[in-house]
Amino acid sequence: MCGFVSIHASGKPLESRMQLLDHMLETLQHRGPDGKGVHHVPGGLLQGHHRLAIIDPEHGHQPMTTPDGRWSLVFNGAIYNYVELRSELEARGATFRTTSDTEVLLQVLVAEGAAAIPRLNGMFAFVLHDRDTNRWLAARDPFGIKPLYFACPGDELVFASEVKALLVHPDVVARVDEVSLAQYVSFQFCMGKRTMFEGVDKLEPATWMVGEGSQMGETRRYWTPATGVLPGADGDAVERVRALLDDSMRLQLRSDVPLGGYLSGGLDSSVVCSLATRHLRAGIKVFHGRFDEGPAYDESSYARVLARSVDAEYHDVAPTPADFVEHMPRIIQLLDEPVAGPGAFGQFMVSRLAAQHVKVVLGGQGGDETFGGYARYLVAYLEQALKGAILGTQEEGRHIVTLDNVIPQLPTLRDYFPLIR
Question: How many separate helices (H) and strands (E) can be counted in the chain?
Fold first, then answer.
């Protein structure tokens, strides 16, 4: 990952703003230890970037500008289909100075503007600036994997990869947002663009925003997940999912540095690591977190079985209570906002282990959310079925609930989980 700051339309002296930018970037150094860069347009823009070098480590430095200096880009993430996009651009006459996905992103945005964003296959947050017009474009990937926060202190608009960078700004005050706090207590997350900090918002997933100087203009959602039942037999859906997973893995293995995988022993990470080794035709390093409090808390046996089956180099860590006491303050500081669930501690410890061996780690998180693997999803579905039965049958203004109009709407497990046999 990388981290960046982008300050827009500051009419204040450049020297003081450069000092502020430097202080803000200090809070993001952990996101990118491989390089630091700054760029400024007098009276209109200040950008800074900390880089974790994955693609073209020697030449993909940021902020990246076009040769004429008109366009500048700060970007956090990865564009997985950058090779295909580059070929398209070259066919239209474009030339490149690097082999990085950053330059491909820069050139496709200059050529096509916001229309290019839905064609990006990746995880990303970026801010593109046009020196000649002082206009900018900011966007975030469809699932919001990469963060992008912003605030409007005084006569400036400031974007950053983390809240803590914004809080360095003297006009951004660390004050709790009471509405967001109530939402978190109720739902375990803040809704929409809200954050736990008053005056600090986030660009929502699958959204781009344009503006000029410190003024925000149009905001538009460019992607919405499809819902409903797809046509075809269940077997067709299974093959389609398998093909999509395989293609996704093929693209995400593009890296100029060593990569590995998280391996819990569960289905999601096991599928990811198996596909990765199939494409690489070699084993990878895999990383597992276990607990020594008893067999119920130790799944390392499953992870080891999978590691042996794909010829992976297995590593694990067993966090202790002392580790919790030592690292939890750092974890809280890194997160910026609270997250529901206890998984952050274990994930931190496994990631800490992985960082000693590789720079890129593949993960299987999100499978349960995508395929309805949590029991609470079934409960929510049954609740909606009951609600439909209640609201769908009326007699003289009264809602009638009977087994006859409830039972037909309740799915079987096979109906609800069509991919499981």
Answer: 14, 18
pLDDT band at residue 394, thresholds of 50, 70 and 90? very low
- Amino acid in the structure at residue 327: H
Could you give phi then psi for residue 268, rounded to 5 degrees? -60, -55
Q: What is the pTM of this model?
A: 0.87
pLDDT digit string, tens, across residues 257-293: 989 999 998 888 999 999 999 999 888 999 999 998 8
Contact 138, 148 (CB under 8 A): yes
2 labelled catalytic: yes
Q: Please name the residue ranges forming H helices in 7-48.
A: 14-26
d(CA 267, CA 270): 5
Sign of the CA dihedral with 379 first, then 381, 382, and 388 last: positive
| The two three-digit tokens of residue 388, written as one number | 């439909």
In tens, the pLDDT along 133-192 reads 999 999 999 999 999 999 999 889 999 999 999 999 999 999 999 999 999 988 888 999
Distance CA 73, CA 105 (A): 9
Q: What are φ and ψ of residue 49, in 5° steps? A: -150, 135
222: tokens are: 């460019």
Contact of 289 with 262, CB cutoff 8 Å: no
- Once rounded to an integer, what is the mean pLDDT over residues 39-64? 92
Whole-number Cα distances in Å, 388 to 59, 370, 378, 379, 408 = 58, 24, 15, 14, 11
Give the three-class secondary structure for 313: strand
Both tokens of residue 118? Answer: 């839905």
Instruction: Give the whole-angstrom CA distance, residue 390 versus residue 396.
Output: 14
Q: Are 316 and 303 in contact (CB under 8 A)?
A: yes
- Are the CB atoms for 142 and 82 separated by under 8 Å? no
Range list of H helices, 188-265 = 234-252
Q: Which pLDDT score, from 0 to 100, does residue 281 have? A: 84
Residues 6+ apart with CB under 8 A from 166: 24, 149, 150, 151, 158, 160, 172, 200
In tens, the pLDDT along 118-139 reads: 999 999 999 999 999 999 999 9
Contact criterion met (CB below 8 Å) for 242 and 344: no
Tokens, residue 330: 């750092």
In the set 2, 152, 190, 273, the catalytic residue is: 2
For residues 309-337, b (16+ Cβ closer than 10 Å) or e, as one string? ebebebbbbebeeeeeeebeeeeeeeebb
